Amino acid sequence: MVALAGIPMDAAAIMSSVLEGILYGFSVLMCLGTIWTFTYKRHMQDVNRPIAVVATLLFVLSTAHIVVDIIHLEHGLVKYRDTFPGGPVAFFADVTQVTFVIKNAIYTLQTLLGDGVVIYRCYVVWQSAWVIVIPCMMWCGVAASGVCSVYYFSQASMAEIENFFATKIGHWVAAFLSSTLATNMLSTGLLAYRIWTIERKVSAVCTTKRKVPILRVLIDAAVLYSAALGSSIICFGLWNDGLYVMGDLIVPIISITFYMIFIRVATSQSNQYHPSTAHRETTETERRKLQQHPLQPLIHRPNDSKFSLGDSSSSKVETHTLT
């Protein structure tokens, strides 16, 4: 490759594998936490199946990516260390390697899955197909640029490999990163704005304040994902080999961001049963009083209904974020 700023390609491969392994460990723990929160003390028919499918796909893709990454690392440092022209540095710079192409294909699928889920959440909250017209068009752009980048990786010539950032391969990669960042920010912004407006309307009838609002979790997840994509774009603009490192790290980061939201949604669904239980206990107490004193009028307190309305509306906002 041409002289680029940053660390050598073999060192970048080792660093990306180590860091991805650490983040993958966190994602596995959060995946187990997601499964536990959605299945603990619940019947099978009560499990949110769309979320279960998405969580499973995220885990499968992130696992496949790190497995292929380890195989790619083993090929460059062990199997072809002495036989590949140019040694490990040239091997890891070769974007036509099968393992490298497979890694990028998995990364593209993970990105499309994550962006698709955000757009779907946006549609569910807004309950309007017109709102997601532009995000869907941008998602198609992400898919097109991702497919083209993977294809040109597999068909790259030696001259294109040596001038990766200045060729059409680099241009497709830049288009992919920019389009997925714009799609995610637009969809998350629409989603966050809708939830904020709904919660502002129901705040007048809420008597309890949640400790971890779903809106804050959404913003935290969006900031984490956007920071990773922004770092990749900066590395690309500087022609820095750190782009390869960030490309491997984004895959487990996508899983982590969505597991954060899934766990919060499951927690909100579990908490919504407590107010209904309290309301039933209040109703039963009033019924017993009416039986003991049948001539006394039954006084219905507006505050009780206010409490029930406020919590159910608030829970509906959080539950509909993903379901």
What's this entry about, in short?
It is built from 11 helices and no strands. With 323 residues, it is mainly alpha-helical.
Largest sheet: none
Could you spell the SSE succession in H and E letters? HHHHHHHHHHH
Rg over alpha carbons: 25 Å
Residues in β-strands, percent = under 5%
Low-confidence stretches: 273-322
Q: What structural class do helix, strand and pairing data support?
A: mainly alpha
Shape: globular
Count the E strands: 0
Give an overview in words:
- The protein is built from eleven helices and no strands.
- The two termini are 47 Å apart.
- It has 323 residues and is mainly alpha-helical.
- Helix 4 packs antiparallel against helix 5 and helix 4 packs parallel to helix 9.
- It is globular, with a radius of gyration of 25 Å.
Main features:
323 residues; mainly alpha; globular; disordered C terminus
Helices and strands in order, then pairings?
Layout: H1 9-39, H2 49-79, H3 87-93, H4 98-126, H5 133-154, H6 158-162, H7 168-202, H8 214-237, H9 242-271, H10 273-292, H11 302-319
